[in-house]
Amino acid sequence: MAVALRLSCLCFLQLLIVIVLFINSSADNSIEEAEQFQSLSNSTIVNRLSGNDELRHEHAVDDPEAIASMVDTSIRNSTERRKLGYFSCTTGNPIDDCWRCDRHWQRNRRRLADCSIGFGRNAIGGRDGRFYVVTDSGDDDPVNPRPGTLRHAVIQDEPLWIVFKRDMHITLKQELIMNSFKTIDARGVNVHIANGACITIQFVTNIIIHGLHIHDCKPTGNAMVRSSPSHYGWRTMADGDAISIFGSSHIWVDHNSLSNCADGLIDAIMGSTAITISNNYFTHHNEVILLGHSDSYVRDKVMQVTIAFNHFGEGLIQRMPRCRHGYFHVVNNDYTHWEMYAIGGSAAPTINSQGNRYLAPVNPFAKEVTKRVEPWEGSWKQWNWRSVGDLLLNGAYFTASGRAAPGSYARASSLAAKSSSMVGMITSNAGALS
């Protein structure tokens, strides 16, 4: 009987050991799963995108020429109103005329959300949410931001129209990762985001960024950063873009002053679409705007971007923009400086240049507006690049290719030659407004 008792005790101890080992193994697995979840935001990004193709296709329009025609109509209406003297405040810039003619715009800030044109025209930002007033310029803790800071505002799950109590200089420790349905509205104050990390728009929708000075952005990362009230995760090194748009849609970037960052001033990649970049002032930078991840990333064929009323100013070298795969409407911009080229592309993008003013540099070898990066000689001749009503100065020339403009576009572009002569006036207030 004693032997049987010892055997029973031994069996019990073995069973106990097995249970303990099982619990420890489960705990280790839970820790591994938690670590994998925290790093998911930027360590398996390409895999995440493969499951979101249908969503981004929904945000791309079937007929981009129709949106280009809508932009032309908006410009036509604004310039005609100015010519006839209907409103003394009108400039011919349909975005500005939409809200700046209202003397009480500060009481009606959300009206700005109805003023965009082009592919980003449906970006409503935080129009349907409450106002959030930023009172604190600090950014001490990217994981647990203080209420009143810009980081605390942009990570909230609800729609917010974010304004600033006073002038501010904000130095971000890590990327400012925005949540969907947010407007950053710096009208009426002088707000600089500089000398640190800058803005990341990743896997979100409906963002408006208006009126900021963004400059001297630096690479940051290898740190934990919060992206919503319920989630934070490990971020690998960021490039140092002023504004990085990644797998996102319905984005409007308007009236910002951008310069001198470690990488690009605006990058839109990985299937981002429905974007308008307007009324910005770009200066002192090498690679200004990148639109498209790589030649092999064919999901960027859904990318559709309007680039309107911007001033590409002193100290710029190239990429205004540099495009891949998608459809890009470049309309009524003022190009007063470039050292290498203005508009570049690869992987057969469609570039629709209308009513821009291109002032070539003195360098006789940099007069061409366009630059094509091609896999083999002559393949670019099939790419659809066209120039309608552009003003080419100081020996500037645009090398067109592909098919001619369709009839519907040609009719909508009938004002282009006149509007190119008005570019100086239309873009005179580009950048963050004083």
Can you characterise this structure?
With about 425 residues, this protein is of the alpha/beta class. The protein folds into two domains: about 65-105 and about 280-434, Single-stranded right-handed beta-helix, Pectin lyase-like (Pectate Lyase C-like, 3 Solenoid), CATH 2.160.20.10; about 115-245, Single-stranded right-handed beta-helix, Pectin lyase-like (Pectate Lyase C-like). The strands form five sheets. Strands 1-2-5-8-13-16-20-24-27-30 form a ten-stranded parallel sheet. The protein has a nine-stranded parallel sheet with strand order 3-6-9-14-17-21-25-28-31, with no helix packed on it. The termini are far apart. InterPro entries: AmbAllergen (IPR018082), Pec_lyase (IPR002022), Pectin_lyas_fold (IPR012334), Pectin_lyase_fold/virulence (IPR011050), PEL (IPR045032). It catalyses: Eliminative cleavage of (1->4)-alpha-D-galacturonan to give oligosaccharides with 4-deoxy-alpha-D-galact-4-enuronosyl groups at their non-reducing ends. Its EC number is 4.2.2.2. Pathway: Glycan metabolism; pectin degradation; 2-dehydro-3-deoxy-D-gluconate from pectin: step 2/5.
Descriptive terms for the model:
434 residues; alpha/beta; Pectate Lyase C-like; 2 domains; 10-stranded parallel beta sheet; 9-stranded parallel beta sheet; 10 helices; 24% helix; disordered N terminus; PEL; EC 4.2.2.2; metal-binding
Give a brief outline of the structure.
By secondary structure, the chain is of the alpha/beta class. Helices cover 24% and strands 28% of the residues. The strands form five sheets. It has a ten-stranded parallel β-sheet with strand order 1-2-5-8-13-16-20-24-27-30. A nine-stranded parallel β-sheet has the order 3-6-9-14-17-21-25-28-31, with no helix packed on it. An eight-stranded parallel β-sheet has the order 4-7-12-15-19-23-26-29.
